[in-house]
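Notebook, student rotation project (T.W.).
Task set for the rotation: take a protein with a known small-molecule partner, predict the structure of the complex, and write up what can be learned from the model alone. Partner molecule chosen: S-adenosylmethionine. Sequence and SMILES entered below by T.W., checked by me.
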Amino acid sequence: MDELARMRERSKTIWALGDYAAVARRFEGVAEEVVAAAGIGAGDRVLDVAAGNGNVATVAARAGADVTASDFTPELVAAGRERTAGLGLDVQWDEADAEDLPYPDASFDAVTSAFGLMFAPRPEVATAEAFRVVRPGGVVAVTAWTPDGFTGQVTALMGEYLPAPLAAARPIDWGIETTVRRRLAPHAESVELARGTVNWTFASLEEATAWLELNFGALIAARRDLGERYAGLRDRLVALMRDWNRDGGGTVRLPATYLLAVARTQPT
Ligand SMILES: C[S@@+](CC[C@H](N)C(=O)[O-])C[C@H]1O[C@@H](n2cnc3c(N)ncnc32)[C@H](O)[C@@H]1O
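Predicted structure of the complex:
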């Protein structure tokens, strides 16, 4: 197995740790925004890449779109399939790597990825794949945490402790306007960027720390793997939350900025 394949396998096991559904619930609102910004409606063929347990897929299917959701973590594909079936939504779920999508060229009207494509280790490969499978005149919409928001800071902090790809791929580069334009513009007729904020709220710093240690896969992996170094990471995480807390009186509100990019491809 080569280095990239090893990184990929390790990454999948990390995404399967904890309770991803609990994490994803906190930013369901972004899925609504992605679907609206991409102009997804009834009958559109939509591919959601790195779909997790289906935040975007659920909203797109409720809008009447013909949705395919793909992710490379088998446990999340199973969770997503169960979620959409439980909601009575007809979504096709596939296990697939964002860098090697198992779909013919030009088979979708819209390709979306909320906080997903950003974790592919080779951004240029994942980007080319997204544009390969969208039709001419279609739309690619992606979101990523920005480096200057709370989640971007946590992603960067985790990157100091975890081996690639969560570390080396610099996922938060997808939250930098100039980088995103440089990546998308060669494939697109137009690229529109907008910023939004998700507030992570907790009753206290202690509750926030316990919640992350219970649900956030990357932190669970770090706790399991780092030995004595974990205490240092935990201290820095708590300090980060204290610095970023915008509430007074003990409660916690951590503003996480994200970038939404909507790229439209040239009609033929
Ligand atoms: C933060 S989650 C986002 C999930 C979902 N889009 C959402 O909005 O909740 C990141 C997802 O990316 C997936 N992922 C990471 N790297 C991937 C890759 N190379 N190919 C496919 N999926 C990938 C993970 O399995 C995980 O489900």
